[in-house]
Amino acid sequence: MTATLAIRVATYLLVYDGLLALYLAGLLATPAALLAAGAVAASWWNEWLRARVSAGMGLALIGAAVLASAADLLFLSNSLLDGLVRLLLVLLLYRLFTRRSLRDARDAAFLSFFMLVAASAVTFGVAFLFVFVVLLVVGTWMLVLYHILSESERAPERTRIVGGARAALARPLLGLSLAASVATFLIAVGLFFIIPRVGQAALPLRTRVGPMVSGFSDRVELGAFGQIEADPAVVMRVQIVEGPPEPERLPNLRWRGIAFDHFSGWAWSVGRPSPMTLIRSLDSQFGIDIPRGGAPIVKQEIYLEPIGTEVLFGASRVLQLGIRADAVTVDDMGSISVPVPTARLQYTVHSQLEPIVPPDAGEASGAGWARLQGRERFLQLPPLPERIGGLAGEVTAGSRSPYEAALRLTAFLSREFRYTLLLQRTTRLEPLEEFLFVRRSGNCEYFAASLAVMLRTLGIPARVVSGFQRGEWNPYGRYFMVRLRDAHSWVEAHFDGAGWVTLDPSPRGEVDDTMPGPVSLYLDALRMRWYRYVVNWSFRDQLMVAGKVHDRVSAWRQWRLEAPEPGSLPRPFLPALVVLVGVVGLMLWTRARPARTARVVARMPGFYQRALKALARLGLSPEPDETAREFSLRVASVAPACGAVLAGITDAYERCRFGAATLTEPEVAEVADCLATLERVASR
Amino acid sequence: MRRLGGFLWRALRPRRTIRPTRDGWWCLFATFGLGFAALNTGNNLLYVLVCMLLGLILVSGVLSEQSMRGLRLTPVLPEDIHAGRPAIFGATIENRKRWLASHSLTFEVLGAGGRRAAPERYLYLPRLEARADRLLGWEQTLPARGRQRLPGIRVTTRFPFGLFVKSSRVVLDSEVIVYPAAQPVARDLLRPVGGAGAAPLRRRGRGDDLYNLRDYQSGDDPRLIHWRSSARRQSLTVRELEAETTPDTRLVLESMGRTDPRRLEAGLSQAASLAVHLLGAGAAVGLAGPGIRVPLGRGRGHERRILTALALFDPASPGALDPGAGAADRWTPVSEIRIGLD
After folding, report:
1. All domains of chain B, ordered by start, with CATH?
2. pLDDT tens digits, residue range A440-449?
3. Could you tell me the residue range of the domain that residue A580 belongs to?
4. Which of A63, A482, B84, B113 has an alpha carbon within 20 to 30 A of B272's alpha carbon?
């Protein structure tokens, strides 16, 4: 591959890398990305196109593109970023189609770098890492190639190339370029973790909204979850950073979102919103509630994808919230929201898990739990068919406490009803009536709504909660992967002496809960690490790492003071010592090897070797002490027919070998002619 | 105090200077811009890109230093440098590193303007292997005779990314003696020594006239091959030339050359041209003038002696005459050519 072709290939790789970055960031829709990729591919043959497109037409096309870009930037685009991205594309295509020199190719590569800059503003995906690595490796290669060629072309009338640029494109230079990109990557990684995050950005950058999820707004109709409960997209990752040693064994773990108290017969809503805005403390913590009883407290680190809702999720009951936001809103049912619906959020939650409920809960006031104030609000019911209340009474007949009645109802629904995502209405009855008496199957919202309504008919305060089930446990990253299909509704009922208790009547037995394969889990763990250590790397993390390093150093100093033997090394140093010995050994071995320089410099050109081979057939070979010119003269005296052509070949040979010159195209052709003549004469 | 300052400057001045190229300025500008954006938004992916640019800059510095380190330039100066005549200068660049090659080295040959002027020409070496050397050559013209300091050359590299130019100090700026310009000699100048200054002798030599034809022998100058005879005889034949002789000559510089510098330089150039021509023809040549007395002599060494005396001739401070200098050739019959300097 020639150097010019290599630069061209590198340029196009970089351009496609930039386009991929824009596509992955959602800044280019699929049709637009395909169109742009096609246009970029067509620009490879720009000379062919330039020969067929008149100058006037070219100017008209450029003018139209400029006008369209200006109009797009000023009036049409949804955001400034969208407009700038399209302008970038227009500039890129212009540069590629009008490409004539090395500098144009270099400019196109720079534009592709700015595509990555644009993409970095709106993407958080781990794919950015791969795009970045491609940019680094190919970009380094291109910069080195561009440098070598541009140096050769600089001020040609005053510059003489010693040797020839082709010599510089040998394999070692490619290796060097690769090594440079690896070194750059390592330095970049080191700097990334060290550079202090002193920025005061209170809110994370906004990103593209993923799937808009219904079911987490102030008002949710029955069946709203039906559309998303088959979607496997991961929307949340929850890592238990403090708490029990085996979080995957925690029972009844759910991620609580929003609670509803008002039922209209077909929709749940927040009937009496009483939001309270909390202002963050100096350490970005928001106190939500206080611990009660002796139930364990777990700290979760949650990464929530933008799903178009302001609701924050966490294990029930949330005590403390840590998030980079100026304020959060909490209502009197414990629903927490933050006004960044399009942002990808990372926050920590301290939650107190639910205590074991005594069987007589609801009969008398327990210590620490006041009787529920405003309980009428949680007993509200729309006009309902009487047979719903009748069914509740029938199921709970003989219960000794409200809590036992609630458990009976929960078990009844779980046992007698079937979970399904097929929610077609078949009658004109009220939705709950149809669910309980006709269809006898539905999704979690129907189960939760039925239980809450039946509890209310029995005088037990109840509310419906929307959130997520605990999701799949990823053993590689040790976190819960929560998918859209884990969206869930359940019921919280209030029992005097126990407080709000979670009741989940939904069986969810028929949901496709197949576990992902190990590769999928590993990739997701990689994604999680990317989010954790790159996207969300913060000043607090830096302080934490600095503290750990300080502790290690202190421990090492302590170990040195208490070392049993003066010469012994701590275990972590042994691998480093082995590596060090290996490196030193390699250096010594390399140093001891003879230099390869002479062999490289003294290489004989192939055409002269062919000439000698042809003359050898005539019995003419150079003597050991005979120079090429002397040999040429001797051949001329012995075989005059070969003398003239050999003189030409000898001249070219001397220039190549001793003058380190590169033959021009006509000279190569001339040497080839001479060689053909010589071989023809020799073959006679 | 000044000496102390000079010592400190020599000890502490950087061995290499570095400055950004135009692309380098763009890179720095982009780094600062992205850094500001990263700081302002707290977006870690922008930090990633900023760190990549910083990494590129660091790697660029390390690789360019590696390219420049361990290089040694040894001058290869021409034996004769004549004022106003192009001379071939050279230098051997040697990579003394044991296993690392140097890449993309540019040798900036400085012009008469010195180290602040734009280089007169560039030599570009894409790659120099470890423990290898390469001979560089270039043509340069020094305008005036006398002791002159060579403008020198500077080794620079933009390797690997073309973002920064790293330059060495100026080297090969040593002092040389530039002889007066030597030109072909007009016949009338040689009239005092017998016309063309050369009379053929009937013996083998290095003159112009044909003496004999003989078979080619290994080591013969290929330019002496007589192609027509070679073709006729079907074997290589070379020409043998007659030797020539020229009478011994003393060049005498008249007057001090203080009135007209141009006339002085023209006179010295004429003397140099005559000396070179006559010595080349095999004659013994001497030089006499105000403060100069070079006895008769032959050969390359004597030619340099005469040319050096002419190169260093200073009309403002002519040296004292040496009465014994011409004693050796006092009884030698010689022709004499007088050259006026005023």
Report:
1. 11-176 (2.60.40.10), 187-191+248-340 (no CATH), 199-245 (no CATH)
2. 888 888 899 9
3. 562-598
4. B113
